[in-house]
Amino acid sequence: MPKKRSGGGLSSTQQAAKFLGVSVLAGAVMAGIAVPAFGALGLAAKGSVEGFDEIPTNLKRPPLSQRTTILDNKGGQIATVYSRDRTVVDLKDISPYMQKAIVAIEDARFYEHGAVDLKGVLRALNKNAQSGGVSEGASTLTQQYVKNVFVEEAGDDATLVAQATQQTLGRKVRELKFAIQVEEELGKKKILENYLNITFFGQQAYGVEAAAQRYFSKSAKDLKLEEAALLAGIVQSPSRYDPVNDEEEAVKRRNTVLQRMADVHDISRAEADKAKKKPLGLKVSKPKNGCITAVKGAGFFCDYVREVFLNDPVFGKTQKARAKIWNQGGLTIRTTLDPQSQESAQASIKDHVYKSDDVATAATIVEPGTGKILAMGQSRPYGFGKNETQMNLSVDSNMGGGAGYQPGSTFKPIVAAAALEGGKPANQVYSSPYEMDYPSPVSACDGRTWNEKGVPVANENETEVGPYDMRDATAKSVNTYYIQLISDIGICPVTDMAGKMGVERADGKKMNQAPSIALGTQEMSPLTMASAYATFATRGTYCSPIAIESIRQTVGGQKKSLPVPKSTCSRAMSENTADTINTLLKGVVEDGTGSEAGLDSRASAGKTGTTDERYAAWFVGYTPNMAGAVWVGDPAHKRKMTNITIGGVPYEKVFGGKVPGPIWRDMMAGALEGKDAPQFNLVTIPPSNIGKEEDGRGDEDDGDQDGNNGDNGGNGGGNGDGNNGGNGNPQFPNPTISIPEEWTISGNDNGGGNGNGGNFP
């Protein structure tokens, strides 16, 4: 550790007196006694030092903070994170040159004296008295180690660090007391090993292994003589002797170490002279700390892993306890990230959306049946620069994300699943006019009703006029069909189904009890939607998302496994309901609004979604073995996606099937390459016998324009449906709604709002 060299203005006589006092004190400490005379000298005075007998008798070496390595599911490194870059190694894995060099320059009589070197104290006293300053210190390597332990225990607490390094008689007494104990309990070799692992070598490198990697890109066991001498010289003053920033000073210091090694006969004069003539030979590796260094665009996934660790009680009862373990490090975290899927996701994002575009995209892939997150990427890189961000656009706000984004018509399959579970047939027909008012009242949860008059909703295209059955209404993403459907079955079955599928608002608020939720007006995250759709792929079983497969921790040279969060799987719907949804959504990618997202080589299904005012567009889809969600929009919820250029391509209007759909297709195609191609269990949906010629499917999505009072929408979430659902008059019965095909309503927008809560397919 660096020694303080300033004279502090003391005269040579004062310096001599100071060192004499230390030497006398050292003798007393080595004798292990505390006599009244020392109390008379003020050594036991409060404010100067604790009573000598009150000093703890056991020095517990703290677990040294080390780097944590985050791996993908194949064992490849994603990133390293640490509060202190350190890798603890055994003495046998440290070059003998390094061991000799540090002893020679820091404490040449290390193997000859005890905890305190009285000869060294007297030598320093004499030399400093002659020079009139402090040109030589008297701390042994053992004492330096003890001081480093106190600093390590202090962590990043500036107050505790100051206490551990303050130049007071009290601290010296405490150091000496512990140094005696350390000498007795650990022995010389273990002290040397601990010292080389704990001390700071500059350039963010703690311990000799990190230092060897930082300056020479090699292991400590491979250090040559001149390299070891350089590192040993840095310890006294890492800033002054930094070879990266001051080569001249570093060379002088290295040569001083080499000369000292020759003086104490660790090496010959010839070896020292030869080594002095060699260049520094640096091969510097830059510090690689944090998720910003993650490979394959996995910085946000890396950050999500950190958030999981800091938030999940499985790693500790309190956040403080979890943070302590994380900062201590020494973890090897094997995650669920699939490198093939991650690389494909990031490549597709890069092809379709530029980081400098007005809007961004985020994509997530999960594995049905396990909840494992296979990929997580976005167009704006993880970082602090222009067009970069630290906000994870794929996750909820409590895990480092924003307030979410309205999913639009990608929420409709959840409504369909709730209806099917409640007994509605898949060939259920509704009049589905181009435009209508929300039916009112509509039953909600807890015996309440939603009751709002004159709130209009329309389809995306005037040609979309019913009647429609569920198959066609889903393929064409007909808003008025789904509003009639949720009005028929009630709101509560839909929110219940959403809960079973893990669907909740990204901002943590409760889902609004309003029929507009059928059109996706509640803000969700891509991870939430991908995990929900994986439920359909597993024929009705929802599995909560997980990011960590295993963790091993190294503490004090001992390795142990830590428990990790497990995915919780539960049945959300019957197999028949899931199979019916799969049949419906397969039609969406075959000849519906998601036709540009379909995979040619394997079975796929999914749903498009575009919010009103085109602030967000989605495609959420799946195969039997992967589910993925893609969102495109402005995280700040300011830029409408009309007359816009994205990824170098101009768009008059953005739809879920036009930008997110192709991103999903390319992402999934690469992720699934070489993997099995199982089929869905499809069902036969009886014809509805509507008895009319089928309409064209129009431009695209669902065109919800409910425009209710507007929830706050959150960051990037739109203005929401916001009717503050559930405030209706409870005396209304649960209605059974049947709207004639010829019914035409001219909405007067009495529901207020600006129409921003709505969504298109």
Characterization of this structure:
The protein has a domain at 88-277: Orthogonal Bundle (Penicillin binding protein transpeptidase fold), CATH 1.10.3810.10. The chain has 22 helices and 21 strands.
Give the helix/strand layout.
Blueprint: H1 12-31, H2 36-40, E1 68-71, E2 77-81, H3 96-106, H4 118-131, H5 141-154, H6 158-165, H7 169-186, H8 188-198, H9 208-216, H10 225-234, H11 247-263, H12 269-276, H13 299-311, H14 319-328, E3 331-335, H15 339-352, E4 360-366, E5 373-378, H16 412-421, E6 429-430, E7 435-437, E8 442-443, E9 449-450, E10 456-458, E11 468-469, H17 470-476, H18 479-489, H19 492-500, H20 526-537, E12 541-543, E13 548-555, E14 558-562, E15 569-571, H21 575-591, E16 605-611, E17 616-623, E18 626-633, E19 642-646, E20 649-653, H22 660-672, E21 759-760
Parallel strand pairs: 1-3
Antiparallel strand pairs: 1-2, 3-13, 4-5, 4-18, 6-11, 7-10, 8-9, 12-15, 13-14, 16-17, 16-21, 17-18, 19-20
